[in-house]
């Protein structure tokens, strides 16, 4: 199996090393794992592509490259430059340091990398490690992802629906819970949740020179979401798996809109 991996934390991120281990075991002895990851951190860039300026790409080792762009850029660079059109069987993005559950999925460069894989007609999975008090003192905060990642990816490859041939095909968003590997309860399909009464905002600061800057500031990450959704599952010790699609249409509202505007 040929696998293309990327992330949004950057080429030197510890989560990418975890993903490399996962991908190498999935690919097997005769397989190939190709890495094309951002040269610098690209957290929060979502599905951004560098449409208006070029990006430099550099080889870091055998089948390992860094590109000065977003995760989606890296997938494009991998497919059409590094791999020279030799299509991978799977795109993996992550393992992100922090959760991409709930509304975070909309901002996530990790999810954006998997999304681009799906738009290119490939099977794609985003993987993220939820962090919290129970992971803070672990020698390896990625312990849950490292120990359970291979089983999750294999389960999806073997048993999940992939909608091959659909215009907007499915991809999967996986979040490992904020607990040690031994505390993981199992795998749970879950809808994307929404953390109420918390949202991104800005916090102003002044530099030593007196200039005013704004920092983007996130809300509490352990606010619960509705039962059956990803954040709720993660906080209860489950690995959440959320099927996603790039089609943003609210299909359940089309008929009503036609009646109102017709």
UniProtKB/TrEMBL annotation:
GO molecular function: 3'-nucleotidase activity
Membership in a protein family: Belongs to the SurE nucleotidase family.
Protein name: 5'-nucleotidase SurE
Reactions accelerated catalytically: a ribonucleoside 5'-phosphate + H2O = a ribonucleoside + phosphate
Name of the gene encoding the protein in the UniProt record: surE
Catalytic EC class: hydrolase
Enzyme Commission designation: 3.1.3.5
InterPro entries: SurE, SurE-like_Pase/nucleotidase, SurE-like_sf
Subcellular locations according to the entry: Cytoplasm
Annotated organism of origin: Ruixingdingia sedimenti
Needed cofactors: a divalent metal cation
Transmembrane feature ranges: none
